[in-house]
Design goal:
alpha/beta; 16% strand; Helicase, Ruva Protein, domain 3; five-stranded parallel beta sheet; Rossmann fold
Length: 328
């Protein structure tokens, strides 16, 4: 096993130059959002989808658009609005009166990187139009199923403070997002850098420093990152503690309505391994699991009314679990 880890470590070192080049290119535009960039790279490497939540003006849309430019991937943006229809997202069948046939007109979902901007502004039927594409990487139009390009990532944004004219995402859709990241305001130093950099007319040019082949190579190296059985058991304990907290001597039964789904187990494993890879390691540790746990679990734990009354959030539930469970 040690020889395998050594081999994968060498492969990761060879790929680290590409990752650093990508970071540098994105950081031409993105200021001080290292954690956000890390999470976006994890989504890119693992092929997961990401939901960004934050107040307006925190560069959520800019971050996603810049990553698409720097990776050279096909990019489409959909601004979700209350009058949007499912056909505006996935496409529809068009009738040709000349020969009485129907042909598929593909929607903007047929791309490598899809930005679903303000996703909670569209009704549930439109949000749900993304379900098949996010899970199966395909779209069914009429009687035909069309595969989506590879890689395919959905990166969605939502505004948590404005509730008028918004629709909460269906639980089935939220669960398909690998990560839900909360974006906070930058520090004063970062905001000063933003002010100095973006109050001039000069347009910052972002170059494509990776190709789809490079991304495929990164994903192949990621597949070889090792997760020890003890780390796997720790991941299972974290997830099962959200479902049966009493089994882990956690007094959380009255606060958790529904625990995390099996997707949480899969995504915790993948995200922890990707986090390890980004930090130059060929194996995941419990610390990698802890680092990524909030982003994987915060949208998968539904708290009770009692928890809401006591201002206990899914974040605080996760923190209790991580603080209580023994680390291998």
């Amino acid at each position: 096993m040690s020889n395998d880890i050594q081999t994968v470590t060498e492969l990761i070192k060879k790929q680290s130059g590409k990752i650093e080049e990508l970071r540098a290119e994105v950081n031409k535009v993105l200021v001080g959002q290292e954690r956000l960039l890390d999470r976006m790279l994890i989504a890119l490497i693992t092929g997961g989808h990401i939901l960004l939540e934050g107040v307006p003006g925190l560069a959520k849309t800019t971050a996603i658009k810049t990553l698409a430019q720097a990776t050279g991937l096909d990019f489409q943006r959909i601004s979700f609005t209350p009058d949007l229809l499912p056909a505006d997202v996935v496409g529809t069948m068009i009738y040709n009166p000349r020969d009485g046939s129907f042909s598929a007109r593909k929607g903007p979902v047929f791309t490598n990187m899809l930005l679903a901007d303000e996703i909670n502004r569209a009704p549930a039927k439109v949000q749900s139009a993304l379900l098949e594409s996010m899970q199966e990487h395909q779209v069914t139009l009429g009687n035909e199923t069309h595969p989506l390009p590879k890689p395919f990532l959905v990166m969605a944004t939502q505004n948590p403070i404005e509730q008028e004219g918004t629709y909460p995402l269906p639980e089935a859709q939220v669960d398909r997002f690998m990560l839900k990241c909360k974006i906070t305001h930058p520090s004063m130093d970062d905001e000063r850098r933003i002010m100095n950099r973006f109050t001039k007319r000069d347009e910052i040019q972002v170059q494509a420093v990776l190709s789809p082949e490079d991304i495929s190579e990164l994903q192949q190296v990621f597949d070889q990152v090792y997760c020890d059985e003890k780390v796997g058991d720790y991941i299972l304990d974290v997830v099962f503690a959200t479902r049966k907290p009493a089994d882990y001597k956690l007094d959380l039964d009255s606060y958790i309505e529904y625990g995390a789904s099996p997707r949480a187990t899969l995504f915790l494993n993948m995200a922890a391994r990707a986090h390890a890879m980004l930090h130059g390691r060929a194996y995941a540790t419990p610390q990698d699991v802890k680092e990524i746990a909030h982003d994987v679990l915060r949208h998968r734990i539904i708290v009770t009314y009692e928890a809401e009354a006591e201002e206990i959030t899914s974040e605080s539930v996760i923190a209790r679990i991580l603080d209580t469970l023994p680390v291998p």
